[in-house]
Amino acid sequence: MSLPNKVEVLVVGAGPVGLAAAITLSQLGRQVAIVDSSTTTRKYSRAGIVHSRTLEVLNTIGLAEPILEYGIRCTGGRKGATPFPSSVLIGQHDVENIFRSKLKQHGTSVYTNMAVVDIRNAEKDLEVVFADGSITHTKYVVGADGAHSTVRKLANISFKDPTTGISYDDSSFSPLFNIVFADVHIKKPTPSSLPRNSVYVHLNTFFLLVPLPSSNDTLDQLWRIAFGTPIGGPEIPHNPSLEYLQQQLDKRNPWDTRMEITDVVASSRYRLRFALAGAYYHPMGIGNILLAGDAAHVHLPVGGQGMNLGICDAVSAAQAISAHMEAIKLNNRDMGSEGLAETDAILQRYSESRHAIGERVVRMTKGMTAMINLRTRWQRVVRNLLLRVIGTLAIFRRTAAWRVSGLGNRD
Hints:
Order of helices and strands: EHEEHHEEHEEEEEHEEEEEHEEEEEHHHH
Shape: globular
Strand content: 15-25%
Number of strands: 20
Mean pLDDT: 83
Radius of gyration: 22 Å
Structural class: alpha+beta
Strand order of the largest sheet: 6-2-1-10-19-18
Helix content: 25-40%
Largest sheet: 6 strands, mixed
């Protein structure tokens, strides 16, 4: 299967963000192709939860129900505020599988091993050049190709920490935190007080436990574990072994019962920092480049914001592209400079709206990181006491839930 030499929209990156964009465009009747530089699907990633606002957005493209059916529904939630009051615990790999199945229903598959190396102006559109020398023409490119986005770099869109102004690619830009994510099976029985349908967070040791659904019920329970240390601490292996993970679990486990890891499905280390694209939309010749997901924003995955924010970016970008195409079609006969500017404002509104939300989330997670990354014992004691006090306030709990769920990001 070879990539067409011309498509209406080209999506670069086939993670959940790129897949969500391609699915939305397909449902809107647009000709779309999606490419990825990898030759295989990703087995592992950081994301492990789908929030209420993301479920609302996914419901518009028929994907909320499959997520709810497969995942583990969290307790609590904002009942009455949304049809989806509970977040869903589900690994990113499983989200991708569900999305790929949906994409196939539209007769579209991912073109793998297609690395973008250049985007050039052509007479009537954009030429996207791939590493194998092939070229595809399009008027819209959606960059959903991650934090090191080739699309973003080729469009010369800045990518900086919104508070320090330091570029993401600056060698002096040191990561703020080392963090390990691992999907592991833990031997039954686990501690009776261990949550089975919510995320457990232990701030003092920055330790998270997330129960995940598994298609194999004969195995021990599948869990996502995450822990981290500030930069300058002990070196963390790039792909932590079972022995290393067990050692860390024993060290950080707050329960009296020991939890034994029986198998490591996947593990990885990340060195995390913060950055936000200068814009999510960039006109290039008579073509258009839009960014979504990690190509537009990166931050510590506190509160499970990354994938959720990216999926909402993707659906919004696809809707903006479709509206832009329709506006051009309607105004094509007498499109003057004023009409063109008015039409392009559709894409600019996407950029401004999602950029504002992205900046808000980056600043929120940066504040949460600072709260986690306290070095001295007395600072942690004060933080814990403060959280206990304000945690008793209903308005604080409602506000925190509103922000983390993404419901506060409704357009």
